[in-house]
Design a protein that fits this description.
It is built from 16 helices and 13 strands. It has helices spanning about 10-15, 25-35, 50-55, 60-75, 95-105, 130-145, 155-170, 185-195, 210-220, 235-245, 265-280, 335-345, 355-365, 365-390, 415-425, 455-475; strands at about 75-80, 85, 115-120, 180, 200-205, 220-225, 250, 280-285, 310-315, 330, 405-410, 430, 445-450. Strands 4-10-9-8-7-5-6 form a 7-stranded mixed beta sheet, sandwiched between helices. The chain has a 4-stranded mixed beta sheet with strand order 3-12-13-11, with helices on both faces. Strands 1-2 form a two-stranded antiparallel ribbon. The protein starts with 7 loop residues before the first helix and ends in an 11-residue tail after the last helix.
């Protein structure tokens, strides 16, 4: 059993206001089950003693005992004499992360498929200024062709541009604190390979980006999930970091993928303090940081602004703001750590493509123009998606994100994988919630990117509504087989 635990007051805070349903123990069991399935309460976390939770909730111990018994009978609590009770999942969960990713993928539909509406990939086409920037980069290329072409840390012109952008955003940065990588995924993989040993515990958000989980698993890290479906509970996150003695935490504070949440400055400072107290590194994914949709909304400072000890490692990418075909990412860290990362990189691909880096450097000069173009297009698409969901699927719940490019929809029943399968048959590719979790929860969630044009999104929601009605009227499903 895990050594992680949650106190009575912490669980009471997660449960929120007492439900009106009676008998109360049934409502309490349903609420705890919802926290487990929704990812806010991870499996293998020791629950508070019955008397402690009863005191925190202001109910009788008998009520809590009955709720625990009901959850134990359903397989959501496991117990051992003398060791207490801890959260669990039934023996046959709906789907695992890897099963869901294998089944539905999260990158793109097959090439040449013009009939399928792809809601699996959250990546827009290149901006209007791309051709101009590419032409300028190609004109520069002969000058670079006189050298060897190998720059393991990245071209100086791009490193300087990225450092300057961090400085503009409130974090003074030198070029020697920047390393350019072949995409953000390589950046994360290099960090994981350099800093972690097999078996090291790493805190991850739930839900989170599946390919980040893949990189951590390949390294043999032990994943410690903390739910962020309703936002970050910084007290619970800090307690989890301490209790699990994590080596690092992987977080997405900027329009979190897939929930769309944005962590405020106070939360970012608390996050850094929690890492300091746990003596852990913070791997901060800033892929969506430049994609705020409201130009007048205040922008939180980068997490690194709150760091005085060199424990924040920032990961950025050109894929969302600029174009996914530019395989350019970057790492901001201390100069000594970057030297270690460069050494690691030399055993992987030595250096990134020069022309991609030159194009990205030119696009960095036009970053505000690109941000404005993205905001206009994404706002129109977001609003079209939200309007169609409210009209055609009114019992699905979601919070309208202020940036990024994803709506995280909560269904009224744990049928996301079944809906995704039915939607695929109707010509819509969508990824169900378990793909974004560690161990088979979030079956009541779907990730819906809004990078397509408004009319295309409207058609997609119409097909999703048909798929959902098909599942609603179908006989109760048998347990899903494992996908191989």
């Amino acid at each position: 059993m895990s050594t992680r635990h949650i106190s009575g007051p912490q669980l009471a805070r997660l449960l929120g206001a007492p439900p009106r349903e009676r008998p109360y123990y049934t409502a309490l069991a349903r609420a705890v089950r919802g926290l487990i399935l929704g990812g806010q309460l991870p499996p293998r976390v020791r629950l508070p003693a019955e008397r402690d939770l009863a005191a925190a909730l202001g109910v009788s111990r008998t009520t809590v005992t009955a709720a625990y018994d009901a959850l134990r009978a359903e397989g959501y609590i496991a117990s051992r004499q003398g060791a207490g009770s801890w959260t669990a999942l039934p023996q046959t969960p709906p789907a695992t992360t890897r099963q869901a990713v294998t089944r539905f993928g999260i990158v793109s539909a097959p090439a040449g498929d013009t009939e399928t509406i792809d809601l699996g990939c959250a990546a827009p086409p290149a901006p209007a200024v791309f051709a101009e920037a590419a032409a300028e980069a190609v004109a520069e290329l002969p000058e670079y062709a006189r050298g060897a072409g190998y720059e393991p840390a990245g071209l100086a012109v791009l490193r300087e541009a990225i450092a300057a952008r961090y400085t503009e955003r409130g974090v003074p940065t030198r070029a020697d604190q920047i390393m350019v990588t072949t995409g953000g995924q390589q950046a994360l993989s290099l960090i994981v390979q350099t800093l972690l040993n097999p078996g090291d515990p790493v805190l991850v958000e739930r839900p989170t980006y599946p390919h980040a989980l893949d990189a951590l698993r390949r390294r043999g890290a032990r994943l410690v999930p903390v739910g962020v479906t309703g936002g970050w509970d910084l007290e619970l996150l800090a307690a989890s970091m301490r209790q699990a003695a994590v080596r690092a935490a992987y977080v997405i504070p900027d329009f979190q993928n897939p929930t769309g949440h944005l962590l405020d400055d106070a939360g970012r400072a608390a996050l850094v303090e929690a890492a300091r107290a746990a003596d852990a590194f913070l791997i901060v994914d800033e892929t969506f940081a430049e994609l705020g949709l409201d130009p007048d909304a205040p922008r939180p400072l980068p997490v690194a602004r709150h760091d005085a000890g060199g424990r924040v490692i920032s990961v950025g990418s050109a894929s969302k703001l600029m174009w996914g075909g530019l395989r350019v990412g970057w790492i901001r860290a201390t100069a000594p750590l970057l030297r270690r990362l460069v050494t690691t990189r030399e055993s992987v691909d030595i250096a990134g493509p020069v022309v991609d880096q030159l194009i990205t450097a030119r696009l960095m000069e036009r970053i505000e123009q690109i941000r404005a173009e993205r905001a206009r297009a994404l706002t129109a698409s977001r609003d079209a998606l939200a309007g169609a969901l409210r009209e055609l699927l009114p019992d699905w719940r979601f919070t309208l994100p202020g940036g990024g490019m994803i709506v995280w929809a909560r269904l009224s029943a744990p049928v996301a994988t079944l809906v995704a399968e039915a939607a695929w048959r109707r010509g819509v590719r969508v990824v169900p919630g378990p793909a974004f979790a560690v161990d088979g929860v979030l079956e009541d969630c779907l990730r819906l990117p809004y990078v397509l044009p408004p009319d295309r999104l409207r058609t997609a929601v119409e097909r999703l509504a048909g798929a959902y009605r098909e599942i609603e009227t179908a006989p109760p499903p048998r347990p899903l087989p494992a996908y191989v």
